[in-house]
């Protein structure tokens, strides 16, 4: 049986990945809060615990055979080098445009300023509508930007909408729905076909819509 390395996304995706893996008897066997590399209860499977944004890189270069990360991450970074065979339907949220409540942006003469951790997704979204915008790249706390005049709108993930509401903001457009996906290295898909196919089938059974 081939050895399979799976790159897991730290944080909220990990929290929702663990119960799913547990159903397959694939719990990490080690301290996932500290270790970056953890064996599983199945001796043929081991895990890397890394940031969601790093998962595509590890899988693309074959440092991991497969991985779990958010569709937002895959859309932003372009995932042509990876197979994306499975939607896990976990860590569900949406990518939205949001603005301050009551401030309808985009009527001014200057270009709309968009603050976001997702410059590519934002650029494509507004370009598709024929809107020239100025993108301001941030690494977190996007909700702050319109409140202090850094931007007119933000493009960010929304789940319950509580964070927007707490900051006096509201969604003005939904760009797309987001959930976590399995990605697979293309060479591994060929070289370790049986093992990966078997895993994918088992995961598909426990990741209902
Ligand atoms: O390493 P990196 O910085 O990329 O990741 P991170 O440290 O931000 O990781 P983490 O744990 O936040 O997980 C990010 C991934 O979880 C995203 O890439 C999504 O695929 C997924 N996800 C699902 C979410 C949310 N739901 C979500 N609600 N990521 C972030 N949020 C934010 C949201 O933007 C808001 O600020 O959580 C806050 C609460 O949302 P509300 O709407 O419920 O208030
Ligand atoms: Mg975060």
From TrEMBL:
Gene Ontology MF term list: ATP binding; ATP phosphoribosyltransferase activity
Function: Catalyzes the condensation of ATP and 5-phosphoribose 1-diphosphate to form N'-(5'-phosphoribosyl)-ATP (PR-ATP). Has a crucial role in the pathway because the rate of histidine biosynthesis seems to be controlled primarily by regulation of HisG enzymatic activity.
Quaternary structure and partners: Heteromultimer composed of HisG and HisZ subunits.
Top-level division of the source organism's lineage: Bacteria
Main subcellular location: cytoplasm
Domain comment as written in the entry: Lacks the C-terminal regulatory region which is replaced by HisZ.
UniProt source species: Solimonas fluminis
EC number(s) given by UniProt: 2.4.2.17
SUPFAM superfamilies assigned to the protein according to its UniProt record, in alphabetical order: Periplasmic binding protein-like II
Compartments, record wording: Cytoplasm
Protein name according to UniProt: ATP phosphoribosyltransferase
The ATP phosphoribosyltransferase catalytic domain, residue ranges: 51-204
This protein's GO CC annotations: cytoplasm
Catalytic activity: 1-(5-phospho-beta-D-ribosyl)-ATP + diphosphate = 5-phospho-alpha-D-ribose 1-diphosphate + ATP
Pathway noted in the entry: Amino-acid biosynthesis; L-histidine biosynthesis; L-histidine from 5-phospho-alpha-D-ribose 1-diphosphate: step 1/9
Keywords assigned by UniProt, alphabetized: Amino-acid biosynthesis, ATP-binding, Cytoplasm, Glycosyltransferase, Histidine biosynthesis, Nucleotide-binding, Transferase
GO biological process, one term: L-histidine biosynthetic process
Protein family according to the UniProt entry: Belongs to the ATP phosphoribosyltransferase family. Short subfamily.
Family annotation (InterPro entries): ATP_PRibTrfase_cat, ATP_PRibTrfase_CS, ATP_PRibTrfase_HisG, ATP_PRibTrfase_HisG_short
